[in-house]
Amino acid sequence: MPISARTAAIAALGVVAIALGVSFAMTRAKASDPFAQCRETGRPAPIGGPFSLTDETGKAVTDRDVIAGPTLLYFGYTFCPDVCPLDNSRNAEAVYLLEQMGHLVTPVFISIDPGRDTPELLAEFTDILHPRMIGLTGTPEQVKAASQAYRTFYKIQDPNDPYYLIDHSTQTYLVFPEIGFVENFDRDTTPKDMARRVACFVEAAPK
Predict the structure, then answer these.
(1) Is 0.70 topped by the overall pTM?
(2) pLDDT tens by residue, 65-83
(3) b (16+ CB within 10 A) / e for 134-168
(4) Residue 103 annotated as lining a ligand binding site
């Protein structure tokens, strides 16, 4: 075989080997992470966990009661003047878009203000945004435990002010039953983009 032909053959074999290697790596990645094709920023650190809270009807619930299907979790408070209403409106709009795609996703609002957010107030807040949005509150200890499980932050600015504001995290978390947390969304994520990305996870979830 001429040297040039031999070189071409070796190069071709090299290309095939690389292609097989890439294919094998992608197959392994998909097997270990069924949502690999849906992630845009890499696999996030594992967060989340069990919680015990009170829903907007006054009933004691756990994460297993609340996360019965694909769920979007957000930590905030009803007295929030701007961020929480905007973020949860975005989440609700994304859920409506997902419904049009044939995907049922539950929006959940976990209050970080148990001193003021009664179940009745949460019901008013969530009913305005989406009929299936679930509002959760609890004792300060229960709320703190749920927040720590999802590594969120919140701090009252001035506890002595009856109209106090609360600094807090603004991430939204996509969670599945049995699987747990799979992705988070920043404030700048649009309803359309959130719906598109959540749909990918829903469709890729092991059945």
Answers:
(1) yes
(2) 999 999 999 999 999 999 9
(3) bbbbbeeebbebbbeebebebebeeeeeeeeebeb
(4) no
